[in-house]
C-alpha cells in the first residue's frame, strides 16, 4: 500500500509529457530487445528511417487534431480530407512537374475551405465538434464514393521524390512534419490566438466573459487541422504516385490521431496538452507498428495490441488528478469522499 | 422568493402546470419531440413516392428491418445520456455475429447455451468498458476505441477476414421469422416484438431511480456524487446496457445478414447519429430514450426515401451528413431559445399567482414575492 502511494507520488510529480516519453523509451527498449531476438538490428539506419516514415502521415494529422482537441472540439473528417486532397493534387498535377505548385495550392485551398466550414458549423451554429465533423466526413465520403471509383491522376516524379528521399536516415516528409510541429508550437505558445485556444478549450464561458472572441480560435484550429490533414493527403499522393478516394479512411486516421493526441497527454475535453506530447504519442504508434512488422505479427493482432496499448498507456496517467490547484475550501475533489465510501461498501 | 411562498407550494406548481394538450405541444417543440414530427414527415414522403409502402405489411417489415439499429440506438442512448461514448458497439455486433456463426453450427441443442454465452460476453465487455472508464478514469472515447480495435482485431484474427459458419436455422429465425397469420399485418416479425420489449424496458428503466440517477450523473457528475449516488456503478451499468443492446442487435442481424466480419461495421457511428438525431445532447443529461429510437427510424426512413427516389446509394453518406448537421444545429438553437425564454414566462406566471394570494409583507405596502 505504502509503495503504491509512493509510486503515485512519483507519477504525480511527472508531467504527462514526460510520462509519454518514458512510455516511448520503454517501447524502444522492449522493441530493441524483441527485434534483437529475431537477429536483426532495431537501430539500423533502414529501420530508423522506416519508423520515422511511419510517423509522418499520422504526425501531420495528429498535430492538427491536437489544436482542435485543445480548443475543445474534435475532427473526425480528417481521413476524408486527406483522401480528397490526394485526389485533387494528383488530378491537377497530371504527371507534369509544371503543375506541382497549382496542384498543392488547390489541394490545400480545398482543405482550408472544409476546415472553415467545420469551424463555422462548430463555432457559429453551436454544433458539437463530434457531430459537425462526423457529418462533414460523411458529406465528403459520399462525394468521393460517387465521383471516384478508383485511383485517379498521376503525381510527377519530382513530387514523388518528396515522399521517397531523405537526409541520411531522416525522410524529408518527417522533416516537413516536424517543421509544422514547430510552427504549431509557436502558434500555441507565442501568439495571442494560441493562448486563446487554451482559454477557450479550458472553459468557453469563462473565456467569453474575459473578453475573448471565442469563435476566432475555434475556427482557426479547425482550418489549421484541415490544412494539416491536407498536407497528409499530399504526402500520401506523393508516396502512392496517384490520388486515392479510400487512402484516408483505410488508414483509420481519425480515431488513431485522436488516440495519439490523448496518448500524448492532451485532455480530450480540451484546454490542456502539448504538441510535444502528441509527437511522443505518434512515435509510440510508429514504433509499435514497426516492431510488429519486424516480428511478423499477424496484421489483425496488431489492432489488438494497438487497442490494448492505447487504453493501458492512457490509464497510466489518467488516474492522476487533472487539476493541480490547491483545493479551495479545504476539501478534496468533490468526488473523492463518495468514492472512498464506495470502496468501503 | 421561497420565503414568502405560500405553504401550498405544490398547489402553485400544479397551477403553473399547463394542460396535457399544451404540454404535448411543448414536448413536440423540443428536439426530442421534433424527431417524431420528422419521422412522420419522412414516412409521409415515402408513401407519396411509393404508395405500397403505406400498407401495414410493408410498414411492419420496415419496422422489423430497422429494429437492430433502433435497439443499438437505445443502448447507445444510455451511454450518451450519462455523458460518455460507446465506440465499441460495432465491434461487439461483429463479434457476436461471428461467435454465433462459429459456435452454434448446425446443432439446434447449442442454440440456448451459446445465446447465454453471447449475453454474458456482451455484459462482460460492457463491464470492462465501464470499469476502465469510471475507476481508471480513462476517457470513454479512448476506452471504447481501444475495445473496438482489440475486438475487431481478434474477430479478424479468428476468422481470417472471411465469412464462415452458418448457425442453425432455429437461431436465424430470431432475426428472420415472425408470428404468422396475424390479421391486418400478415406476419409480425420477431425483431418487432423484441424491439417493442426493449423500448418498453428502457422506458420503464429511465423512470426508475436508476434512470433518474443516470441522467443526473450525465448532467453533473460531481453533484450526483454529492447526493450520494454511486456514479461509477451507475455509469458502468450504462456501458453494460449498451453492450447488451449491441449483442441483441447482433443476434437479430445473424438472421438478416448472415455471418460475415463486415456485419456491424460502422454501427457505432450510425447509432450515435440516430441518438443525436433524436435530440439527445452529447455530453449527457438531456434527452429521451424513445426519441433515440425514433432517431434510428428517421435515419432508416431517410435512406428508404432516397432509395425510392432513385438517388445513387453512394450519396447516402452525404445526405446523412447534411441531415445530422442541420438537425443538431436546429436542436442547439432550440435548447438555447428554451433556456433563455423559459425562465421569464415561468417566473411571471408564478408571480401572478402568488401575488394575488400573498398579503403585503410587514412594513411594506406591496404584496407578492418582494422582487
TrEMBL record, chain A:
What lineage does the source organism belong to? Bacteria, Bacillati, Actinomycetota, Actinomycetes, Micrococcales
Regions that span the bilayer:
20-39, 51-71, 78-94, 100-122, 129-146, 166-188, 218-238, 275-294
Query: What are the boundaries of the signal sequence?
Result: none
Its subcellular locations are: Cell membrane
Q: Which keywords does this chain's UniProt record carry? A: Cell membrane, Membrane, Transmembrane, Transmembrane helix
Q: Which superkingdom does the taxonomy of this entry point to?
A: Bacteria
Q: InterPro entries given for it?
A: ABC_transp_permease
Task: Specify the species.
Answer: Arthrobacter mangrovi
What is this protein's record name? Ribonucleotide-diphosphate reductase subunit alpha
Mind telling me which CDD domains this protein's record contains? Answer: TM_PBP1_transp_AraH_like
Q: How does this chain sit within the bilayer?
A: Multi-pass membrane protein
Keyword Protein biosynthesis included in the entry's annotation: no
TrEMBL record, chain B:
Cleaved signal peptide residues: none
Compartment(s) of residence: Cell membrane
Sorted keywords for this record are: Cell inner membrane, Cell membrane, Membrane, Transmembrane, Transmembrane helix, Transport
Q: Where are the transmembrane segments?
A: 32-50, 62-81, 111-132, 138-161, 182-205, 238-259
Q: What is this protein identified as?
A: Autoinducer 2 import system permease protein LsrD
Pfam families cross-referenced by the UniProt entry = BPD_transp_2
The UniProt annotation puts the region (Disordered) at: 342-371
InterPro entries assigned to the protein according to its UniProt record, in alphabetical order: ABC_transp_permease
Subcellular location, principal: membrane
What topology does it adopt in the membrane? Multi-pass membrane protein
Is the keyword Transport assigned to this protein? Answer: yes
Amino acid at each position: 500500500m505504502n509503495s503504491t502511494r509512493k509510486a503515485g507520488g512519483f507519477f504525480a510529480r511527472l508531467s504527462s509529457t514526460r510520462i509519454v516519453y518514458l512510455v516511448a523509451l520503454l517501447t524502444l527498449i522492449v522493441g530493441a530487445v524483441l527485434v534483437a531476438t529475431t537477429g536483426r538490428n532495431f537501430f539500423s539506419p533502414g529501420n530508423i528511417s522506416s519508423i520515422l516514415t511511419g510517423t509522418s502521415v499520422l504526425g501531420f494529422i495528429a498535430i492538427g487534431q491536437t489544436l482542435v482537441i485543445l480548443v475543445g472540439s474534435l475532427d473526425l473528417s480528417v481521413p476524408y480530407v486527406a483522401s480528397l486532397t490526394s485526389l485533387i493534387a494528383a488530378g491537377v498535377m497530371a504527371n507534369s512537374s509544371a503543375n506541382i505548385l497549382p496542384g498543392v495550392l488547390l489541394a490545400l485551398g480545398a482543405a482550408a475551405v472544409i476546415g472553415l466550414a467545420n469551424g463555422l458549423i462548430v463555432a457559429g451554429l453551436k454544433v458539437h465538434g463530434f457531430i459537425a465533423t462526423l457529418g462533414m466526413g460523411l458529406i465528403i465520403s459520399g462525394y468521393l464514393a460517387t465521383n471516384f471509383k478508383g485511383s485517379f491522376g498521376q503525381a510527377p516524379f519530382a513530387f514523388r521524390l518528396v515522399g521517397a528521399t531523405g537526409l541520411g536516415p531522416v525522410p524529408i516528409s518527417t522533416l516537413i512534419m516536424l517543421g509544422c510541429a514547430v510552427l504549431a508550437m509557436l502558434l500555441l505558445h507565442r501568439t495571442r490566438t494560441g493562448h486563446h485556444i487554451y482559454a477557450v478549450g479550458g472553459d468557453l464561458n469563462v473565456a467569453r466573459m474575459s473578453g475573448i472572441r471565442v469563435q476566432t480560435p475555434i475556427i482557426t484550429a479547425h482550418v489549421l487541422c484541415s490544412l494539416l490533414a491536407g498536407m497528409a493527403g499530399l504526402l500520401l499522393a506523393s508516396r502512392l504516385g496517384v490520388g486515392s478516394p479510400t487512402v484516408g479512411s483505410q488508414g483509420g486516421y481519425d480515431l488513431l490521431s485522436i488516440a495519439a493526441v490523448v496518448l500524448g497527454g492532451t485532455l480530450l475535453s480540451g484546454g490542456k496538452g502539448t504538441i510535444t506530447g502528441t509527437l511522443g504519442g505518434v512515435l509510440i504508434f510508429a514504433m509499435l507498428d514497426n516492431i510488429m512488422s519486424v516480428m511478423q505479427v499477424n496484421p489483425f493482432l496488431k489492432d489488438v495490441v494497438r487497442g490494448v496499448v492505447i487504453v493501458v498507456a492512457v490509464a497510466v496517467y489518467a488516474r492522476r488528478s487533472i487539476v493541480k490547484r490547491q483545493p479551495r475550501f479545504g476539501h478534496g475533489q468533490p468526488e473523492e469522499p463518495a468514492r472512498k465510501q464506495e470502496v468501503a461498501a | 422568493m421561497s420565503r414568502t411562498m405560500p405553504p401550498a407550494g405544490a398547489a402553485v406548481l400544479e397551477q403553473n402546470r399547463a394542460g396535457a394538450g399544451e404540454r404535448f405541444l411543448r414536448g413536440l417543440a423540443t428536439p426530442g419531440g421534433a424527431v417524431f414530427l420528422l419521422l412522420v414527415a419522412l414516412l409521409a414522403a415515402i408513401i407519396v413516392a411509393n404508395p405500397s409502402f403505406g400498407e401495414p405489411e410493408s410498414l411492419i417489415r420496415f419496422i422489423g428491418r430497422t429494429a437492430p439499429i433502433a435497439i443499438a440506438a437505445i443502448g447507445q442512448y444510455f451511454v450518451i445520456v450519462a455523458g460518455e461514448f460507446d465506440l465499441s458497439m460495432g465491434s461487439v455486433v461483429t463479434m457476436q455475429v461471428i461467435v454465433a456463426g462459429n459456435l452454434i453450427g448446425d446443432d439446434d441443442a447449442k442454440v440456448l447455451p451459446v445465446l447465454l454465452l453471447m449475453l454474458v460476453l456482451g455484459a462482460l465487455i460492457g463491464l470492462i468498458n465501464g470499469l476502465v472508464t469510471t475507476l481508471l478514469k480513462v476517457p470513454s472515447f479512448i476506452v471504447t476505441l481501444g475495445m473496438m480495435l482489440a475486438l475487431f482485431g481478434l474477430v479478424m484474427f479468428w476468422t481470417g477476414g472471411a465469412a464462415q459458419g452458418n448457425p442453425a436455422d432455429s437461431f436465424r429465425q430470431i432475426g428472420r421469422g415472425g408470428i404468422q397469420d396475424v390479421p391486418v399485418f400478415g406476419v409480425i416479425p420477431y425483431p418487432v416484438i423484441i424491439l417493442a420489449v426493449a423500448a418498453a424496458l428502457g422506458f420503464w428503466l429511465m423512470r426508475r431511480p436508476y434512470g433518474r440517477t443516470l441522467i443526473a450523473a450525465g448532467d453533473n457528475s460531481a453533484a450526483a456524487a454529492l447526493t450520494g449516488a454511486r456514479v461509477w456503478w451507475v455509469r458502468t451499468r450504462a456501458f453494460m446496457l449498451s453492450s447488451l443492446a449491441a449483442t441483441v442487435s447482433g443476434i437479430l442481424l445473424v438472421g438478416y445478414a448472415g455471418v460475415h466480419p463486415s456485419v456491424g461495421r460502422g454501427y457505432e457511428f450510425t447509432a450515435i447519429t440516430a441518438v443525436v438525431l433524436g435530440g439527445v445532447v452529447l455530453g449527457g443529461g438531456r434527452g429521451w430514450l424513445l426519441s433515440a429510437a425514433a432517431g434510428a427510424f428517421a435515419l432508416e426512413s431517410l435512406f428508404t426515401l432516397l432509395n425510392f427516389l432513385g438517388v445513387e446509394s453512394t450519396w447516402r453518406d452525404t445526405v446523412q451528413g447534411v441531415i445530422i448537421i442541420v438537425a443538431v444545429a436546429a436542436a442547439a438553437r432550440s435548447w438555447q431559445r428554451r433556456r433563455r425564454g423559459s425562465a421569464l414566462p415561468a417566473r411571471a406566471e408564478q408571480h401572478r399567482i402568488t401575488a394575488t394570494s400573498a398579503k403585503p409583507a410587514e412594513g411594506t405596502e406591496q404584496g407578492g414575492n418582494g422582487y
